[in-house]
Amino acid sequence: MELTTILAAAATLLGGLYLFYSYRFTYWKRRGVPFPKPLPLVGNFGFVLTGRKVFTTALKEMALPFKEKGYCGVYQWTKPLLLVWDPEMIKQIMCKDFSSFHDRGLPADKHDPLSQHLFNMGGNKWRNLRNKLSPTFTSGKLKLMFPLMRDIGVELSAQIAEETKKAETHELKINTLLSRYATDVIGSVAFGIQCNALRDQENEFFIMSRSIFRPSPAQFVRFFLETIHPKLGGLLPFWLILSNVHRFFINLMKDTVEYREKNNVERNDFVQLMMQLRKADLASIDPENHVELNPGVMAAQGFIFFIAGLDNISNTVAFALSKLAANPELQDKVANEVRDVLRQHDGELTYDALKKMDLVNRTALEALRIWNPVGLMLRKCNATTRVGDLTIEKGQVVFIMAQIAAMDEKNFPDPTRFDPDRHLPEVKETRHPYTFLPFGEGPRICIAERFALLEMKLALAMLLRDFVFSNGPGHKGEVELDPKALFPMPKDGFVLQVTARA
Fold first, then answer.
1. Is residue 302 exposed (0-12), middle (13-18) or buried (19+ Cβ within 10 Å)?
2. What contacts 8, CB < 8 A, 6 or more positions away?
3. Cα 415 from Cα 370, distance rounded (Å)
4. Was 446 annotated as part of a binding site?
5. Which of 208, 177, 176 is nearest to 191 (CA)?
6. Which helix H or strand E contains 457, and what residues bound it?
7. Beta-strand (E) ranges in 38-149?
8. Cα–Cα dist 195/338, whole Å
9. Distance between CA 470 and CA 174 in Å, rounded?
10. In DSSP terms, which residues pair with 387 in a beta bridge?
């Protein structure tokens, strides 16, 4: 009797679970939203378990069968997610109805100081902190920071010249050197220190920054838990997984601030600007939503520089150089622009000189279009809203698949062809402005957009002034992506042949 009761209870439980999950998987069908067929329990996220696909690539493959519709639904295990790539819907979500989609749905962890950055924050706390930090990225402030960045650009050029001489084939894994360049730039501007990662292979700052991105079993488990439910990621917080990294960055900012205050040291960098903001006592009239710029919060803003800018910038510049290597005529055209502008500025690469290099700018933008380092943006609906022909309900997480629009032949004919002229003003006017969003759009547009572009253009100008890039014996054609990476990462790097430009 007892066994019969147990079996009956088990059957009832399994039947109930089956009905529950079966009903969950009708969410999109009941709303008339197209979706790829989900698998039991895992939905459309079985790829997370295999680790064989880049996260953004997997989502793109799910969406492409419904490309003409402009949106589709998927299942993150049993949780419905909405993918959107229609430009007009993106515009409505990011701008017109921003009040209904102002958060990313990635709450900051109150126990983790390094999570207290703009990307995670929402609501009034995000707004207050953004208002404080926005003045640090004006053209005037970037112009003051530029000499610090240029010095590192000079060091990058010198290091490439030195390493090229050592290599018999003159081939270099260019993205590795650019990653060290980005480390030195961010270390100097965001943390106020001279890292010297370009010269020092064992540099602690570089090692710590790399460990953020190095896949580990613990990080995979956390990512797996978060895809099931965001709160489950809290069972294995980043501050615990990367405790040494967290201590390093927080103590670094704390020591830098204390040293400058004690010795009256000032420097034209992000740290100094945040210190000035803190002294200005920009306290909010709403204490509950006020964000104090203490060393922990300051470290968090510097930390997100690394998350958003290290590999993203280095790989995008490396991708641009690889495309120029395949098109020597275009490469010479860009290099000639650099040299022509420098002649107008007595040979000195200044902030104003770089602003005049229009083709360099368009080359960086075209690299961002094809090699979009993120490719998607996250929004959470906080009030049920009609977007296009679809009602998006409160609590729904939306993935804005910007890369699909940027690689659509309707928006960019022959989309895989590298063509900087796509970004000429007269050409841009012919397409929807929301088909190319490398830094987002609307009130939550990337606050460091100008800084990131400046860093990329500086590297391109420096390197194309001094070197010729070509495909050598180590060239493998199309770049293979690392399937274990969350965002596009070259599995074997960008290997280019480098020679001095005459």
1. buried
2. none
3. 8
4. yes
5. 208
6. helix 449-466
7. 71-76, 79-84
8. 28
9. 12
10. 390
Mean pLDDT of 112-122: 83
The CA-atom distances, in angstroms, between 344 and each of 146, 336, 454, 497 are 19, 13, 20, 30
The first and second tokens of residue 112, run together, are 């983790």
Instruction: Quick: pLDDT tens for 30-60.
Output: 999 999 999 987 899 888 777 778 888 899 9
Grouping H, G, I as helix, E, B as strand and the rest as coil, residue 361 is helix
CB burial readout 9-24, b (16+ within 10 A) else e: eeeeeeeeeeeebeee
pLDDT tens by residue, 201-237: 888 888 887 777 665 666 666 666 666 666 666 655 6
Between CA 430 and CA 416 the distance in angstroms is 19
Quick check: 109 and 64 in contact, CB under 8 A? no
Confidence of residue 285 (pLDDT cuts 50, 70, 90): very low
Which residue type does 502 have?
A
Which of the given ranges, 30-44, 299-313, 480-494, has the highest pLDDT on average? 30-44
Tokens in use for 479? 């770049």
Secondary structure (3-state) at 263: helix
Location of structure tokens 């700052």:
205
Task: Tell me the three state secondary structure of residue 202.
Answer: coil
List the one residue out of 121, 84, 25 whose CA is nearest residue 404. 84
Contacts of 439 (CB under 8 A, 6+ apart): 445, 446, 449, 452
Return the H-helix or E-strand segment holding 379: strand 377-380
CA distance 250 to 248: 6
